[in-house]
Amino acid sequence: MSEKRIATVISKAEDFQKECSSCFEKGFNLALLLDYDGTLAPIASNPSKTQMPVELEETLRKLAKHPKTFVAVISGRALKDVKAHVNIEGVTFAGNHGLEIEYPDGSRHDYELPADIKQNYMDMVQELKQRVERDGAWVEDKHVSLTYHYRDTPVELKPELKQLAMEICQRHGFRANLAHEAIEAKPPVDWHKGEAALYILKDKFGKYFSQEAFIIFAGDDTTDEDAMRALQGLGRSFRISADEHLETFADYRLPQQTLMTDLFKWIANGYLD
């Protein structure tokens, strides 16, 4: 049974070799499943301003081209949005926490929400916009899930707006999770980043995917813990967080996002021809 724990910390590039030398062997299939915001790209003041560091992007692009490497990006963003920000060929994309999945050939898998949940979603969006979209806070409507951003709200107003937004989301039956200066509202269905990760891996490698590929997952937020829990014991996962006391389903903790570039470089140096 999966459980949270204090993960091993990797704080510098050399630690990847020291701690993860047995992660994979050259020539074996490698599956990289990655969050976007806070993982591939540093958190920005506005989601539209995020950008992957140049060296990270170049290395990830090379890895995505390797015949033995499979790359999927699983994000809370809408599918079209995360595709535009990553823009790397050969990548499988999952948006809205995995509710919408698109493969490199253009085929899709969309989780169909019941009609009552769709109606509740529209009502929730309308109420949030009317009551708490103010003082710098705004609602990012992703059609099946949403993010309420309050990063630019005056400090003294944040607690009240955050609490009210949480109550509105929950009253409409949605699951509200705290993120980085934001609230993620997800529909009350048994589908999340963990289910999406398992679905994508089974679709690519079959039922016994963990015997066909070594799996690496990386994420920085509470919603990524669903994938870390689902994949615990099946590969290696990395949680990006500066919190020394954080309990996580991940195997390793990276104190800062910049270490993702070092992770990719370490993988590339040991894996690419």
Automatic annotation (TrEMBL):
It comes from the Eukaryota. Pathway: Glycan biosynthesis; trehalose biosynthesis. Keywords: Hydrolase. Its EC number is 3.1.3.12. CDD domains: HAD_TPP. One of its GO terms (molecular function) is trehalose-phosphatase activity. Pfam families: Trehalose_PPase. One of its GO terms (biological process) is trehalose biosynthetic process. It is an enzyme of class 3 (hydrolase). It catalyses: alpha,alpha-trehalose 6-phosphate + H2O = alpha,alpha-trehalose + phosphate. Its cofactor is a divalent metal cation. Belongs to the trehalose phosphatase family. Removes the phosphate from trehalose 6-phosphate to produce free trehalose. This is Trehalose 6-phosphate phosphatase. It comes from Drosophila busckii.
